[in-house]
């Protein structure tokens, strides 16, 4: 079986009300339609930092582009088989703050992955955690909640 290595970066985006930006899509796998709720993420271009890729991918997939990276939430490695290819994927996530609710149109090519995405707002990180389809992404939502909790504690101690 062929092995494909893949590096991706994405974001957990909070607005001023601490709502969480997600994407949803309907895809067909094994001749079944699947509804997915995901975090925005995608491949890292050559010469691009992980954080730059996370911001770019979030912008491309959601139309929300005015983003500030506020924390590095770390990486995870996953391996899986799909369509006779073994994938080794490294994903790096960042906590981001949305500076503006202005949303630009998404210019996705028909049939591309981005054309399937619809932005979706979860009311909180707790809500987002329960909505996300994949465990790895739920883990990163929990990391973001923990980072916010610790950050609030540190602010109170000062």
Question: Care to describe what's here?
Answer:
- This protein is an alpha+beta fold and 158 residues long.
- It has a single domain, classed as Alpha-Beta Complex (Nucleoside Triphosphate Pyrophosphohydrolase), CATH 3.90.79.10.
- It is 27% helix and 43% strand.
- Strands 1, 2, 3, 4, 5, 6 and 7 form a 7-stranded mixed beta sheet that branches.
- A hairpin with a 2-residue loop joins strand 5 (67-82) and strand 6 (85-98).
- The protein is globular.
What is the compact description of this entry?
The protein contains three helices and seven strands, in the order ββββαβββαα. The chain has helices at 50-62, 125-131, 135-157, and strands at 2-14, 20-29, 32-38, 41-43, 67-82, 85-98, 118-122. A hairpin with a 5-residue loop joins strand 1 (2-14) and strand 2.
- Shape category: globular
What's the rounded overall pLDDT mean? 91
What is the name of the CATH topology?
Nucleoside Triphosphate Pyrophosphohydrolase
Q: Which CATH class applies here?
A: Alpha Beta
Radius of gyration: 16 Å
Task: Show the helix and strand layout.
Elements: E1 2-14, E2 20-29, E3 32-38, E4 41-43, H1 50-62, E5 67-82, E6 85-98, E7 118-122, H2 125-131, H3 135-157
Parallel strand pairs: 1-6
Antiparallel strand pairs: 1-2, 1-4, 2-3, 2-7, 5-6
Record keyword descriptors for this entry.
single chain; 158 residues; alpha+beta; Nucleoside Triphosphate Pyrophosphohydrolase; seven-stranded mixed beta sheet; 3 helices; 7 strands; globular
